[in-house]
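ok so dumb question maybe but i'm new to this and my supervisor (M.) told me to 'just get the structure for Methyltransferase type 12' and walked off. so i did the thing. is this what she meant?? sequence i used:
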Amino acid sequence: MRLGPIPENPIERVVARLNLAPQPLLDTQIAYTLARLVMVGTKLGVFEALKDGPLAAARVAERCQTDARGTEKLLFALAGAGYVEARDGGYGLTRVARKWLLAESPNSLVDKLLLQFHEWDWMERAEDYVRTGDPMELHTVISADEWPTYQRGMRALAGTSAAEVARRLPVPKGARDMLDIGGSHGYYSVALCRRHDGLRAVVLDLPDAIEHAAPILAAEGMGERVTHRVGDALRDDLGEDAYDVVLIAQLVHHFSDEQNRELAVRVARALRPGGVYAILDAFRSPSAKDAGQAGALLDFYFALTSQSGTWSPEEMAVWQRAAGLEPRRPIKFRTVPGLGIQAAQAAG
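this is what came out, is it supposed to look like this??
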């Protein structure tokens, strides 16, 4: 799946085929304008104002306490982009907006879009990164004001894939104990524990992460089945023969090859016989030719905001095999293109 110019009539299809359309303008000015306006509509409550039915722009402005003319321009733009539609003399939500952009939707991405205001600022460092090669280490530069937004945004993002994770992650039969490394909000653990009776999870993360993620986990009502433990994945002793499943989700892109190899050794020691080490992350293609748009862009984003960037499932399997585990075939997600699980199993 990729973003790009989509012809809307036969003439535009011909223009696109002949390379006459100024694609760089579409990929930049149109793309960043669209992104910013969807974010602004979310932040100002425009989509929430329309959740009960179509309204005139002036009524939306009253509900959002915004300027009537500015609100009309925003709604007009969002209609052109397919997030609202002109209806009954006003504007109503489309299926896309109703599913993803309402706070009470089980699929809500509202908190992720609010986080993207911070990510917008982080991306301004892209030029400096390319010039110097010096990335920002996200978890050390997030301010106290940004941590709550970051944790809620990560929880919203996890909601897009948690059901598939719970369904496809190879949990051993009769598994009792799981370690969720860097899981902060704990939602992957919640989804797995709800699917597998008798499974309990400990979520290991940094103190600042747990401080702001604890209310998010508490809201799931899992009690003692999913708990937090303060720690550092790069330094803590993970125990021996302690877990049936160890999950590390959206974290290995922050670690170097050496760090991931060393972590895999400690994970292998912590697994019980037959236990599973599952790495959930964006998969990097070994070749730019096969990377695809989303995968290649995410590799840059994570290289900018962490210490490494994304890894290929083949590289993940090397860490696992060197730790004495038996890698399985990678699981490529259907719901979130580019995301997947590289799992490996302990002997026994």
